[in-house]
Design a protein that fits this description.
The protein has 510 residues and is an alpha/beta fold. It has 21 helices and 19 strands.
């Protein structure tokens, strides 16, 4: 289903990008006019298209626009817009969300200075160059600088693993303050999402104002954004935003539930409550305006007739249905891991110290104190094997073709898929088909635990649901990296992995 507003947004975004590109103003205007017509129309355009109505009968809609609107309605996408997005530097597109900057001004800036990123724009705004352009006064420059700052804050996401030490340090810092009873980090951090936008910390304390004063004195605080009666927000030296909220003991469970999210999960829970004539908010669960739960999270779930759900599952990806039909997964735990099938050869002794019963390394080694498997890694595009091995890992890189992946599945024992979270690079392949083939050929999915290369939990869930087993590996090259395995476990939990799905929870992986 697509609304008139959505169709109009795609057309007007196309107009903006065409204008930045310097396209013919008449063409740009035609897109804008069509967007306006559709947005203000009382007729449902999806319906019009489906009924075969001739759109060119409408004022300002010619053959081209008519074809485009049909494409948007039938596919939900607009290929011309997608192409423009690829063609125009992302930084310029981002600038469209800065108040005071429209496509005309962005083009002006681009033509004058060749600026393509927010950082460059900031430089030219600060060094006085931007003032020289016609129409760029000091008020506008201030507006632009403010917009850049907001945009950058909104856009930054941190790898969960990169904030972990700091988050735990802050937890400890707050916990030791006199009168503080509970400190909990809620939000995406508690759900162990691969990246977090900010940290949402809840405190139960005798005197919140005192805690807040102490909080903003945390040594790594760079900027105090606000400090109120029940909520304070600061930015740390690495630009990470921290929200601190005061919560009462009586509603701690409801607050923890609310601020753990996800938002989508919360919305579903609230719907269920409404169906039972109840109300859920961050203070508690209410029936006929009487509070019936709120002290603990377990209580909150129970009051609305649901089971407790682990934070990693709270993404509205079927967890509520699973609870209702008693099929919630019993998630794998870090303590269940019995070995690591991808580590550096010189880490075998460290692996023994962790209590592992087996490891995988890239050399043939015989030891009495631990089972050592020899792994061989091959790019699926170059499936040449001229060494012996105990098991074979196929690496699926960005340039891997579906054909090569499917061929490799006949030979390998594991597949590892490329991903770079921070660079926003993902493989664009048909995972459904690949997982089905993997199941058929008994090929397992390697969940590499490097925080920036974690495979998405959605794919883990999909693989598992098709019966594919996973092997959670650290890929460690150093002693410290052996601990990465917990990130792989976190991600697997978010992908609903139970012990039965994980190869390396058994004493014997093969
Ligand atoms: P993040 O920070 O982008 O990684 O993601 P979250 O999930 O930590 O989101 P955040 O920090 O905006 O808010 C924390 C939690 O508060 C969120 O998971 C659910 C709850 N929350 C925030 N805004 C809303 C809202 O408008 N409605 C509902 N139901 N819950 C909300
Ligand atoms: Ca958050
Ligand atoms: Ca937040």
């Amino acid at each position: 289903m697509i609304t008139n507003k959505e169709i109009a947004d795609m057309l007007s975004q196309t107009a903006n990008l065409l204008e930045i590109k310097g396209e013919n103003p008449f063409k740009v205007r035609a897109y804008r006019n069509a967007a306006k017509l559709i947005e203000n129309s009382s007729k449902d355009f999806e319906k019009l298209v489906k009924e075969g109505f001739d759109l060119t009968k409408l004022p300002g809609i010619g053959n081209d626009l008519s074809t485009y609107i049909k494409e948007i309605v039938t596919t939900g996408k607009f290929s011309k817009l997608e192409e423009l997005k690829k063609e125009i530097p992302e930084g310029l597109i981002d600038m469209l969300s800065i108040e005071g900057l429209g496509p005309k001004r962005i083009k002006q800036i681009y033509d004058a200075f060749g600026v393509t990123s927010l950082d460059e724009l900031k430089k030219y705004a600060e060094n006085g160059e931007l003032d020289k352009l016609p129409g760029f006064g000091p008020t506008l420059i201030q507006k632009i600088l403010k917009g850049i700052k907001q945009l950058k804050k909104a856009g930054i996401r941190f790898l969960w693993a990169d904030v972990e030490d700091m988050a735990e340090d802050l937890r400890e810092y707050l916990s030791k303050f006199p009168g503080v009873e509970i400190v909990e980090i809620a939000g995406s951090y508690r759900r162990r999402k691969e990246t977090v936008g900010d940290l949402d910390i809840l405190v139960v304390a005798e005197d919140y104002m005192k805690v807040s004063e102490y909080f903003v004195k945390y040594p790594r605080v760079k900027e105090i954004h606000s400090a109120g009666l029940t909520r304070s927000t600061v930015f740390l030296d690495n630009d990470l935003q921290i929200d601190l909220r005061a919560v009462s003991r009586e509603s701690y469970g409801a607050a923890l539930h609310y601020f753990t999210g996800s938002k989508a999960h919360n919305i579903e829970i609230r719907k269920i409550a409404i169906d039972k004539d109840m109300k859920v908010n961050e203070y508690g669960v209410y029936k006929n305006d009487k509070k019936i739960a709120g002290k603990t999270e377990e209580e909150v779930y129970e009051a609305v007739g649901l089971c407790y759900m682990e934070p990693e599952l709270r993404e509205n990806r079927g967890e509520i249905e699973a609870c209702l039909n008693h099929s919630l997964p019993n998630l794998v735990n870090l303590e269940d891991i019995k070995g690591d099938l991808n580590i550096s050869v010189d880490l075998i002794d460290e692996a023994i110290k962790l209590g592992y019963k087996y490891v995988g390394v890239n050399a043939k080694i015989k030891r009495d104190d631990i089972k050592v498997y020899k792994i061989l890694e091959v790019d699926v595009n170059k499936l040449e094997i001229n060494e012996d091995y105990d098991f074979l890992v196929g690496i699926v890189n960005e340039n891997a073709t579906s054909e090569n992946i499917l061929k490799a599945i006949k030979k390998v024992d594991f597949l590892r898929f490329f991903r770079d979270i921070q660079a926003k690079k993902e493989l664009n392949i048909d995972f459904e088909t690949i997982f089905e083939e993997m199941k058929k050929e008994n090929v397992a999915l390697e969940v590499i635990s490097k925080p920036n290369n974690l495979i998405s939990e959605v794919l883990i869930k999909s693989a598992i649901s098709k019966g594919v087993k996973i092997s959670i590996v650290s890929g460690a090259k150093t002693k410290k990296e052996l601990n990465f395995i917990k990130y792989g476990v976190n991600q697997s939990r978010r992908g609903w992995a139970e012990n039965k799905d994980v190869i390396n929870v058994s004493d014997n992986p093969f």
